[in-house]
Amino acid sequence: MIRGLTLLLCAAALSACSITSSNAPDSAADLGIDALTNIILPDDPPPDAREVLTPEAIARSPTSALLVVVEQSDRGLSVVPIAANRGTVQWLDGSGGGLFTRDGVLVGTRGLGFDLMTADVAALRAALPRGGGSDLLRVNRHLDGTNQMIAERYLCDLVSEGGETLSFYGRSFATTRLSERCMPVDGGPAFTNNFWVERDGTIRRSRVFVSPEIGSLRIDLIAD
Amino acid sequence: MSRRISRIASFLCAVGAAGVTQAQTVSSTGRVSQNTYGVPGLIDMPSARVQPDGELITSLLILTNETARAQVSFQMTPRFQAVFRYATIPDFLVVDGDLERTFDRGFDLRYQLFREGRYRPAVTIGLQDFGGTSIYSAEYLVASKAFFDGRLDVSAGIGWGRFGTEGGFTNPLGIFGDSLETRPGIDLGEGGTPEFDRLFRGDAAFFGGLAWKISDRWVFKAEYSSDAYEREEAQGIFDQEIPFNFGLEWTPREGVTLGAYAINGAEVGFNLQFALNPKRSPNGSGLDSAPQPVALRPPPAQNPDFWSTAWTQNPAAQNAFRDVLSANLQAAGLELVASKLTADSAEIRFRNLRYRSQAQAVGRAARAATASLPGTIETFILVPLNADSQTGTAVVLRRSDIEALENAPNGAGEIEALAGFTDAVGLGREGLEYQEDAFPRFSYRLGPFTQYGLFDPDAPIRADFGVELSARYEPLPGFILSGAVRQRIAGNRDEVDRENDSELPPVRTDTFIFAEENSPVVERLTADYLFRPGRNLYARISAGLLERQFGGISGELLWKPTGSRLALGAEVNRVVQRDFNGGFGFQTLDATTYFASAYFDHRNGFVSQLDVGQYLAGDQGATYTLTREFNNGWKIGGYVTLTDVTDEEFGEGSFDRGILLTIPLDWALGQPTRATGSAVIQPILRDGGARLRLANRLYPAVRDLSPPDLTDEWGRFWR
């Protein structure tokens, strides 16, 4: 036992002084020891965006911003737009994760692990201004455990659930709440998404399913 | 618990750690309950169930009489399962009149003949421990049927061999010949030769039992066992009271199961299982950050300068574009090595040291190119290079397609359909500008190393730890000088206390003498030249201290066309055994080895490799390797080598075979890296069928540079 501990300490001591040129390939031994060290002595997690954001800071924001809450892990992060291509906006957070939206509807995530690679929500986007619709085709794509792209088709009903006033960071928004109830056509879980839409069509808040492992994201448009 | 068992336990805990981390994210996996032999079943008896495809389960059984079994089972296909077992039984082996602890390796194979139907039970046939010294050898045919929504699972079967010892009756298969009624005695011999003449012979017996799922976490099991533990009884280490076993299993978290059993009223057994599956990544598609977005070109009217081709006449402007491209590739984790820019096309050769998936590297390179190059460049010719600057296939993409498909719902599929794939050799080198800092290229690492040895009866796991300094210098593309020096700090690989009784030239059985050196040793020091002699061809010439035990020269040629499932190779080596002290000296033992190799990707997850030729000890024969490869980089395979040495000349084990395992670290860590953890589990290291351990054989090094491997994970293009 003592010998085993000595060996472990040796390995830890060695890793601390592992010196590598920046252009060398990754070493499995170094990565393994780093990972073990990180389990024993984890880095401090980045601060939750909800703790950092203030109405003043939001008012000063030069760009649009979203507050994203990963509901399952109760993690909050803020993202800002970095690019737009043919109607799809790419949003990035400080740690490199990101989102994609189209007309305010979430169509992709990155950096969460069990990401939504793309979502085809053309029927939903057409139905949102009408305030409802049925049998709307939605196709969610994700990479499975062996990196194969899996396309899951859903038929969704969009239903208005009445008016609701949202208040966050010192501002209030009059919205109509709609729910998108999706049933799988060929496998995948059933889920319900919610959208809080203002009179001008702006999606002020949404709650959208990403994957069984990540759960849903709650996305607030905190700066226009 | 003996020290040996605790060593096995610590090994299993390490192996199982990955399973534990994974367990947090996986809910319903379809995994079924296992028995104490590491296969689906009750307690000692098997069931007809199968694990989910790809399931890899490590288990450890400990009995109160200090018997222990460590097992790894792998569901190779949805119906076919293979198991490797390492067992130890106390006071079992008679040596010079004394009873000694025995260690035993064994393999099981199981095949599910019928899946469960509405009325029909599932039926499985199994061969247990058919390759070892047969302490646990048994064969069985078993049926299982589930009731009450799967909460009750009932199994019944017929067993032979060990499973035909309690309540045995004359073999019903005797109708096919009297010889089937007697099971030949165990020929311990050198072990290792599958004893086909014993299968399904001798007395048979019925067995059966049930597993009752009390809750999601608890399972109760009861069985009538047809194993009388005859040999253990004879050695006085088991005292059977009743032919019934009872047990309780607890699953504290997904992927981990603990079991406790009363075995034959004689002993208590404890079982610990860790499960993981290469198909269930703990981090999904990875935690890597979002890519830089595609940069869109402004319309010519808005920014005419961006669309001007005046730069083609201005070398300084060209270099400025190259510098921007290099910086953008660097930001994406890629290194620009060379490029050729014309008014309408850009050939970009880049080294990928970050992404295991070349498709992802190509996707990131494509985006970097959009952010770097003038508007008129419409064609991107992207050439990923491996760590040795080798080219494979060039991926040809239209910039307009990249712009249009970045966020398309089926963008990955559509861009693959529009991409062109061509051998990079056909592009020629004319006009290709190497980056100034690309060559010479120097890299180094000073860090820890570990080296292990398995299955020595005196210590099942031996390992050395120490420090390694490695360096690599590449003055010209493909011409590489590299080496490594190691200093052992601690370990016990040298403590092997066995006579070398090999009847062959000691090309591998001196391994423990090599391990004795306590001064710094030159692990490897070689000059290599890797090049492409022509279309579809790859070549390598190496000279120097090729590995720890041999030095000399080595040459290899590989034919691997773009998109082909078949590759063919030839390899010739002329080597001399190095001095034990790891210096630059040589001993007198020399060898010439040569091989012709065929590699075939079956495209159903399996890859075959056949090597035919002459091995280090001068023996001639062939090695067949079959590997289950998952697209995420996991590889689990087995190989067997048969050469013209006799069983006696070969010694213990009779012939060389082993298990190969490669775990991609990006799968485990969630961060992009090309590093992998690999292990070769060789039951016994002998001199027959031995090959050189070359660091850079061509096929594994160039495979992912061309389709089909290049496109296997194309879904990561936009990742």
Description:
The complex is a heterodimer of chains A (224) and B (719). Chain A has 224 residues and is α+β, with helices and mostly antiparallel strands. Chain A is built from five helices and 13 strands. In chain A, strands 6-5-4-3-2-13-12-11-10-9-8-7 form a twelve-stranded antiparallel β-sheet. In chain A, a hairpin with a 2-residue loop joins strand 9 and strand 10. Chain A is globular and about 65 Å long. Chain B is mainly beta. Chain B folds into three domains: 3-276, Porin (Beta Barrel), CATH 2.40.160; 304-438, 2-Layer Sandwich (GMP Synthetase, Chain A, domain 3); 441-476 and 478-709, Beta Barrel (Porin), CATH 2.40.160. Chain B has eleven helices and 31 strands. In chain B, strands 19-20-21-22-23-24-25-26-27-28-29-30-31 form a 13-stranded antiparallel β-sheet. Chain B has a twelve-stranded antiparallel beta barrel with strand order 1-2-3-4-5-6-7-8-9-10-11-12. Chain B is globular. The two termini of chain B are 50 Å apart. Residues 1-27 of chain B have low confidence and may be disordered. The interface between A and B is large, with 64 and 69 residues.
Strand content of chain A: over 45%
Rg of chain A, nearest Å: 22 Å
SSE succession of chain A: HEHHHEEEEEEHEEEEEE
Number of helices of chain B: 11
Sheet bearing the most strands of chain A, described? 12 strands, antiparallel
Total strand segments of chain A: 13
Structural class of chain B: mainly beta
Q: How far do the termini of chain B sit from each other? A: 50 Å
Poorly predicted ranges of chain A (pLDDT <50, ≥5 residues)? none
Protein structure class of chain A: alpha+beta
Number of helices of chain A: 5
At the fourth CATH level, what is the homologous superfamily of the largest domain in chain A? YmcC-like
**Biggest interface between protein chains, with counts per chain?**
A-B, 64 and 69 residues
Overall geometry of chain B comes to globular
Report the CATH C-level class of the largest domain in chain A: Mainly Beta
